[in-house]
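INPUT
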Amino acid sequence: MSRKKDKLRKPSAEAFSRRDFLRGAGVAVSGGLMVGEQAAAAPPEGTTQVFGPGAVPITLKINGKPHKLNVEPRVTLLDALRNHLDTTGAKKVCDRATCGSCTVILNGSPVYACAVLVIEAQGKEIQTIESLTVGGKLHPISAAFVEHDAQQCGFCTPGFVMAVKAFLDKNPNPTLRDVEKGLGGNLCRCGTYVGVRQAVLEAAKAMKGGKAHA
Amino acid sequence: MPKCKYDWPEAGQRKLIGKPISRLDGPVKSSGQAKYTYDVNRPGMLFGKIVACPHAHAKIKSIDTAEAEKLPGVKVHLVQKVGTEIHWAGDEVVYVAAPTEELAKDAVAKVKVEYDVLPHLVHDEDLSKISDRGKPTAEQKSGDPDAAFKDPDAVISEGFYGTPIITHCCLEAHGQVTEWADAQSLKVWASTQNVSGLPSAIGEAIGVPATNIEIFSPYMGGGFGSKFGPDRWGIECAKFSKEVGKPIKMMLERDLELMMAGSRPSHYAKVRVAAKKDGTITAWESESWSTGGPAGGGKPPIPYVLNIPNQVTRHTSVSTNTGPARAWRAPNHPQSAVLTMCALDDLADKLQMDPIEFFHKNAGLAGERGEIYRQELLKAQELSDWKKLWHPRGDKTPGHVKRGLGVSMHTWGGRGHNSNCNVTINPDSSVEAALGSQDLGTGTRTVIAITAAETFGLPIEAITVKIGDSKYPASGASGGSTTVGGVSASTRRGTIDALEQLFAAVAPSLGAQPDQLEAVGGKIQVKAAASKSLTWKQACAKLGVKPIQVTGKNPGPCELGSSGVGGVEVADVSVDTETGLVKINKIVCVQDCGLILDMKTAESQCYGAMIMGITYSLFEEKIMDATTGRMVNPNMEFYKLAGIGDIGELVVHMMTGPGYDERGVIGLGEPPVISPGAAILNAVANAIGVRVPTIPITPDKVLAALEKGGVA
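OUTPUT
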C-alpha cells in the first residue's frame, strides 16, 4: 500500500487566494511605434523617437551573448526569440500576458515575453531557460522539478522554472504561502502544482546549500 | 512462480515496478530542451493563420482574397466554398501563409468574407428555450419505477443538476508543421494523441499512400481527448504546403483553440430518486439533455456507478451552434457523476443520513466492485477526517465562512489498447524499445522503460525508449486510459521473448540450459548457481554481430491487464457567504487501478486530475453570448484555470497490493478526474445548507442559492 500525503498544505482560514489578477491585453501594434525612455538609442531629451513600421536592426543580449536581428518594431520578445532566433524554450500559449508559459528574466525580473516588445528589450539582460543548464548539468530548480514530478506534458514548465528562478532569487527562504502568492502568475493545465510547491521549497534549500549556479 | 511466461513478476521479485520513479523525459522538459511541434522551425517555413467565421450560423456569400495576396510573400488557400453553411463561430474559411507571423496576421485582416447570417442557438441550460433543436431519444426503463415511487414508505428527493460546456484548453494549441520532402513524401510534426493513426487518416484525405507519410510527435503539450484526428487544419495544410512548395507551421491562436478545438458536452438533468427509510435506494427517474454542438449530445450513463433497481431515463439531444464536441478526459463521466452523486447526496440529506454511510450501505448496487467501493469509502472517510469534520447540512458555527464536506464515487474501464513494441538487444549491450506511441505527459516513456528494465534486470537508464514517430511499430491512440495497459503489455511480451533468445545464445557458455537462466542485477546467471554468471555486456557480446530483434504485441498470450476501476473522492471546502467565494481546503482521492508500474507518475495522474477537477468545478465554462452566438471568453484571463494558490491540500491514496495487483495493469488517466465536480458541489451544499445546482460554482451562483435558503 502506498499513501503519499501532501503534507505541505494544511487547511487554513487565510484569505481566499483565487487568482484575480488581470494584466494588460493587446501588444501587437500595426503602425509605427513610439518608444520613449526605454529605447536603446536614447533620443534627445523631450523628443520621441519613431521606429518602423518596417523592419529595424536591433541587438539583443540573450544569456550574455549579443544577437543582431532585423525585426518589425511590433514583434514581441517572445516571437523574436522563437521565430527569429530559434530559441524555443519559452512557450507561446495565451499570447496576452496571462499564463506565464513564456516567462523570461529581464534585468533580473520575470516578464511575460509575449507582452514585451522586442525593441524594448534592447540594452537589457535577457535570460532564458536555455541558460540554466550548464555543461549538461541541470539547474537545481530543473532538477527539483524532475525529482518532485512537477511536470506532465511539460509545456508550462520552462516558464514555470524561470518564474521560480526569479522568485527564489528575491525570496531565498520562502514559505508555502509565499510560493502560492509568488507563483500565481503561471498556469498549468495538467495540474502539476503539488509537485511545483514541493520542488520550489526543495530547490530553495538546495540553492542555499551551495549547489546553485548562475 | 508465474503461471504464464509473460506474467508480471511476483511482488517480492519486483525491482522497479511499483516504485516511485522519476519520469525519463523530466530533464529535457524542465530544462527547456524538449522540442514540441510548436517549436519546430524548418528552412523556408511559412506561418499559417486562419480566417474564421465570426458568426455562429451563417452561409458564405463571397470570399475576396485579392488584397491579402498583394502582401509580399503571402499565400492563400480556400478551405470552404461560397455557399457553404457554417455552424459555429470560429469555423475556418480561408487559410493564409506568410514568411513572418506578423505578415500572416495582416493577411488575415485583409481577407474579406461576406455572410448571410442565419438564426443560432448557443444555450441549452433551459430546455424550454431550445425551440426545435431538441431530439428526444427513446425512454429506457427497468424494474417498476412507478410502483417504487408510489410506495407510501418511500423517501423521495427531486432536483435539477448540471454541467455546462467546457473546453480542453491544451497549453500547446492544436496544429502541425507540414513539409513535403519530395512530391510524394510528406512529413508532419503534429501535436497529437495518435502518432500511428495519423498517416492513414491524412493519406486517405489527400490521396497519398500512408507509407509515404511520417508523423513526428516526440513531445506534445496536452491533449485530454481533443487530439486524435489530423483535423481539417492537418489535411488542408498538407495540401497548402504542396501548393506553395514550402513547409507551413499552423498552430491555432488561443481564441480559436478555445472556440473550436474541442469542447466537453453539457449535461443537465431533472432527477427524482427514492429510498426506503433505512436508506436503501429503490428508484431513479431522470429527464436529461445535453449538447455537444451541432451534432447534439448523447445520453449520459446515469444513474452512474450504482445500478438502481427500478429506473426510467429519458434524454434529449440538443443541437447548438457552440462548436464541435471532442472527447474530454473520461467522456460523459464527470457530468454523470454530478447528475447522480448530487441527486443521491440530496436524498441522503432528506433521509438525514451521513452520505458516506449512505453510499457504503448502497455500494452493493455497484455490482462486483461493491466491496472495493466500501473499502475506498472508509479510507476516504479516514483520510479526510470525515467523522470529525462532517456535519448535517449547513455549518451552524458562527461567522460568514462555512465549512463543508462532500463525497463522490466514480468508475472507468482502462483496458490496454492494441500495441506493438519492437525490442532490440544489440551486441554492444544497448537495449531499445520502439513503439509508435506518444507521451502526453502521463509517463508513457517511463512505464515502457520500467517494464523493459524489470524484465532484463537492468537499471532504467539502460533502456532507450523510442516513441513519437510513426515509423515505429503501430501502437494505439492515447485515449480512454488505454495506453499504459497497451504499451506495458507489448513491451513485456517483447522483452520476455528477446530475453529467451539471449538466454539461448549464452546458455552454452554458462554450461546450462536456457530455461535455467535468469536476468538479475545486470547479470545473466544460472538460477541454481548464481556464481555462474555473465554481465549483461558479456552476455550481449555472445551475439556476435547479430542483434536480437523481437516484436511484442498486445493483445497476446497471458493476461497482463484488465478493465474496470473504482475510486472515491472527498472534498473539504470553505464558502464565504458574504462574497460567494469557494475555497478548497483539501481533497482526498482514493483510487484503485490494478498493478501500478510507477508510483510517482501514477500519483501525479491523480494530483493532476484533482486539480483539473477543481478547475472545472470552480472556474471553467465556455460562456456563450446569446445575441452574437460567440464565445465571450476565448482567452486565458476569462477562461480561467486554477492557479497554484487555488488547490488546497491534496491527498492521494492508491489501493495496491494483494487483491489489486492480480488484476494486472489498468489505465489511470481518466478515473480521478471524474469525481471532483460532484464532491465539491456536495461539499458546498454541506457547508451552506443549500444546493448550488451546477458547476462551475461561481460566487454569483452561491449567493443566488443562499437567497433561497441555507445558513446565511
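end of record. Confidence is low (pLDDT under 50) at residues 1-5, 10-40 of chain A.
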